[in-house]
């Protein structure tokens, strides 16, 4: 009997052994396309007619474009599973996939430590205002002239986490080691054990009483620009904001204005609304910490993520179920 086909969208860079071992149960094929238009034509040509599962990476969007309402109906009828290598799956229209009976998985958990580490790095860097003096030093001006204002200690500060999932909870533990107290707002309140004693507050309370606000919730229609002008005006003056989730959960135009007015003292960003484009107002502000989406950019974590995603493909082929189906499809 012919083996099922798996479509590889993107590259496997680390977990090469685990990937090779899949070939005993599946035939791996790759698209020839180099653009979305070509990919759509390739789908329509029947080239993927026997594909049961697709493994996709975040950068593969450069070839396929978003897995959206336009693309999903064109995908091969045989396709039953999309295994996405990433925690955030905002590139995939899950609703459209559900309508076509395609199950989608993401990679939670494996990303937690590395992303929370970057989160903590951004909190410390933004609180201390290190960016200005790091730029001055490289320009041969030591700390700069005049020297930068004094920074702030994390000790004793209230960290507000918006979205207390895997990364938020991991961050809470790291922040505790730096003397911060955590409060959170989440779609639903966590059990005492999961929340680790962090106080559950309303969304407005979180804005009004946090010294540092960390955005750790997924991007979707409900969360796009969840932080904008009205929300900045409810925050403590001089708040520090960090975002490792997705750029578009915060309105960047409004953020730049809030930074300019001093309502926001500083921020640390790993993600941006229109990556790789960066808002000129952020580039122009030497006080902010900017990292080019490197939350999981480590050998260890990239390897774990690929292995996890491959396990999803294997489980789909062998058992007909995904190991970590996305929450929206839990009852499918
Ligand atoms: N910068 C990076 O490299 C990087 C790496 C991994 C993940 N991420 C991003 O971080 C996000 C969080 O990752 P995670 O693994 O912690 O996800 P998760 O699913 O474990 O946690 C997300 C939490 O947000 C909560 N939430 C959802 N909608 C909400 C809303 N409207 N209001 C309040 N809370 C809400 C959920 O209940 C959940 O507890 C991902 O969606 C992804 O976009 C970025």
TrEMBL record:
One Gene Ontology MF term: NAD binding
Domain D-isomer specific 2-hydroxyacid dehydrogenase NAD-binding residues, every copy: 121-295
Keyword Oxidoreductase carried by entry: yes
InterPro entries: D-isomer_2-hydroxyacid_DH, D-isomer_2_OHA_DH_cat_dom, D-isomer_DH_CS, D-isomer_DH_CS1, D-isomer_DH_NAD-bd, NAD(P)-bd_dom_sf
Residue ranges of domain D-isomer specific 2-hydroxyacid dehydrogenase catalytic in the record: 33-326
GO cellular component: cytosol
CDD domains reported in the protein's UniProt record: Mand_dh_like
Keyword Repeat belongs to the record: no
Keywords noted in UniProt: NAD, Oxidoreductase
Source species, domain of life: Eukaryota
Family assignment from sequence similarity: Belongs to the D-isomer specific 2-hydroxyacid dehydrogenase family.
The protein's name: NAD(P)-binding Rossmann-fold containing protein
Species this protein is from: Coleophoma cylindrospora
